[in-house]
Amino acid sequence: MKLICLIALVALIFTSANVYASMHEADSEIMKVDVNNDGRVSFDEYKAAHEERMHTRFKRRDVNGDGFIDLAEKQVAKEKKHAKDQADKKAEQKALREKYQDDRKKRKKHFYKY
User: Fold this and answer.
1) Which of 10, 39, 42, 89 is the most buried (most CB within 10 A)?
2) Which whole number is the average pLDDT over 15-30?
3) SS3 of 114, please?
């Protein structure tokens, strides 16, 4: 009974440490936008951080740099995303196929061993 209680206590300690670390990590991400370092994030600081991100995304999608995203640019972005998704899918299939073949070779060696 003491052993079970000890194991439960150790598990609780490790679990609570992981929860605390993940909460602290999320807090530090939010506090990165605290420009004046007062320990609080104002709406203006939060808005400025997100505006920078939105501006970066817009510039990435505005291929010709005219300040507008038109249908042609949207189509180009869609095609690029589709091509990337296809390449990722093929790479994943290739990795799975190689893993399957390696596992099959190991099984054959093990089978003929006996």
Assistant:
1) 42
2) 58
3) coil
Label residue 73 exposed, middle or buried (CB < 10 Å: 0-12, 13-18, 19+).
middle
Q: How confident is the model at residue 18 (pLDDT cuts 50, 70, 90)?
A: low
Would you say 63 and 76 are in contact if contact means Cβ atoms under 8 Å apart?
yes
Per-residue pLDDT tens digits for 45-55: 888 888 888 88
- Rounded Cα distance between 23 and 39, Å, is 16
SS3 per residue for 30-92: HHCCCCCCCCCCCHHHHHHHHHHHHHHHHHHHCCCCCCCCCHHHHHHHHHHHHHHHHHHHHHH
Residue 73 near residue 64, CB atoms below 8 Å: yes
H/E stretch holding 20 = helix 2-31
Q: What distance in Å separates the CA atoms of residue 12 and residue 9, rounded to the nearest whole number?
A: 5
| pLDDT, mean over the chain | 80
| pTM for the structure as a whole | 0.43
